[in-house]
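hi! just following up on the protien thing from before. the input was this:
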Amino acid sequence: MSKKFISVEGLEKIKKELEEIKKIKRPELINRIQEAKELGDLSENADYHSAKEEQSFMEYRVLELEDLIKNSIVIDNSQKNNEMVGVGSTVKIKNNNNEQEYTITGSNEADPISGKISNESPLGKEMMDKKVGDEFLVETPKGEVKYKILGIK
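and the predicted 3d structure came back as:
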């Protein structure tokens, strides 16, 4: 897995999910599997097969979270540069007469509905390393769209 940017808060959220799986959900699931085994014939035991399938998904999620933690570059917002757009920056942009504000995040924390876009998205990628007043183009399905940086915080 390639390195991904993540905020301190995002990393804590991932660590919390991993801990919950390991300390609460996994032991509960192991108990469910054991109880299902005690019911006898496993070939027709729907509870057992359901729990084993859930276990498979859970173990995959554990590996995914551990890999994410291992391969993350943590962005400390207290050290960010408000002169230039980077991961963690909140950027006010304008195209035509439409002003928008986005926070640049790593791909794992992107949520466009909340105004958080990935540094790997077409818009995020083009904003990186720009300064207030800079203009840039973003290729969209309908053609190129011109934007201007109005503010960085």
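Residues 7 and 75 are 5 Å apart (CA to CA).
The first strand starts at residue 4 and ends at 7.
cheers
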